[in-house]
Amino acid sequence: MIDAQNTPTFRQFLGVFARIGCLSFGGPAGQIALIHRELIDERQWLEEGPFLRALNFCHLLPGPEAQQLATYIGWRMFGLRGGLAAGLLFIIPGALVMLALSLLYVQATGLAGFEAAMAGVKAAVIAIVVQALIRIARRALKTRAQVLLAIAAFVALFLFDLPFPIVIAVAALVGMLTGKTVDHASTSPSASTSASTMFGQSIRAVLIGCLLWAAPVALIFATLGPDHVLAHVATFFSKLAVVTFGGAYAVLAYMAQAAVQDMGWLSAGQMADGLGLAETTPGPLILVTQFVGFLGAWNAPAPFTPTIAAILASIIVLWVTFVPCFIWIFAFAPWIERLEHARRLHAALAGVTAAVVGVIANLALWFALHVLFTRVTPFSAGPIHTQLPDVSSFDPVAALLAAGAMILMLRFNRGPVTVLGLAVLASVALRLVLG
Fold it and tell me: Which of 107, 293, 334, 432 could make a disulfide contact with 317, Cβ separation 3.0–4.6 Å?
């Protein structure tokens, strides 16, 4: 996979991945393009074919595909130390920025100017999610069956409030049973390592990884008890880590509703603020989970101070979210050439990707209801369990800001950071004018 004439030293490798980690804005598409440019176009450290096969492999895994691609490339170039270094350097810069923004957020909440700025963030988030919905729908919905699967996922979540993991599991099963399969044999070279050797490597990676994953969770349960907020944070985000198929936007709907409605860790508005802040940081968008855990512990810190509890929650969220990402890579990377032939696996993934369109549509509508209306109430009638807005609580300023953000993103193709900045400025100006 490495061009022998351009083999880097480990120090050079660290410098490039540190650069990637600090510049990885723009979501997975932009991050993958950045990795490609840095490693293939500019330095010729990798070849195109193995890079694309690695990318296809990472799309099969739960978790942020760009971070896992970086981890896999590091593993192929320098083994275990390379995988750990590349994966961590992709996460750490964004995690530090997200922690700083979370601390700033809780300190500034309640200030008039800050509230106006966050109103702009919330409005821009609607446009950001709608753009993600359109982009993913164009890529994922190729057949009538996939369109129907997306609609079914939306209905199951928005009208019937079915659990997200069940929706994803059913979508994978439907995709496996009904989807068209493609033979990838022509694009994948034969694997030379024996199956028994690869199986042993995978088992060791899973056992060691799971022990590391569970150790801090067990420590929290032993010292603080199962009812402490840190225990709830560790448990919830551990579950979330294994169902994050389809990218961050897919799991956001599940996380937002659970964290807001079930856990009561934060409000719907704060959830939108967190997503907006995550869009402005480098690294994977799933770092929004750090903000959610931070606020959950901030609001119920005993026996710690709010700051200490929130920082501890941020650390545990990062741990239980990203350790599984390393487990998937180190366990399954030896099988990458053979997984290219797993046609039914690709069909199942196509089903999940189609359902993700419905999941993101549910997220977009959920955000829109809570941003454009100040009062949203639960509604139940037989098997239907959903939320309806109080029409009298419609916020025209929020609607105007959201419409402007939508035009900037969909008509003029402006990036999320630019749109967020303009929405914040417009919101502050409007609130000053309108009083």
Answer: 293
Q: What is this structure's pTM?
A: 0.83
Per-residue pLDDT tens over the stretch 304-340 = 999 999 999 999 999 999 999 999 999 988 777 666 6
Closest CA to 227 of 303, 129, 137, 332: 303
| Lookup: tokens for 270 | 């704060």
Asked if residue 252 lies in contact with residue 363, where contact means CB atoms within 8 angstroms, the answer is: yes
Q: Minimal CA–CA distance to 350: which of 254, 342, 161?
A: 342
Query: How distant, in Å, are the alpha carbons of 185, 363, 427 from that of 396?
Result: 55, 21, 12
Distance, in Å, from the CA atom of 389 to the CA atom of 333, rounded to the nearest integer, reads 47
Closest residue by Cα to residue 147 from 343, 365, 351? 351
Q: pLDDT-derived band of residue 351, with 50, 70 and 90 as boundaries?
A: confident
Q: How far apart (Å, rounded) are the C-alpha atoms in residues 293 and 99?
A: 11
Secondary structure of the chain: what % helix, strand, coil (to 5)? 75, 5, 20
Task: Give residue limits of the domains in the chain.
Answer: 4-92, 93-434
Between 393 and 343, name the one with better pLDDT. 393
Which of 287, 281, 285 shows the shortest CA–CA distance to 417? 281
> Where do we find the tokens 């293939």?
40
What are the structure tokens assigned to 423, written together?
Answer: 């929405």
The whole-angstrom separation of Cα 179 and Cα 349 is 10
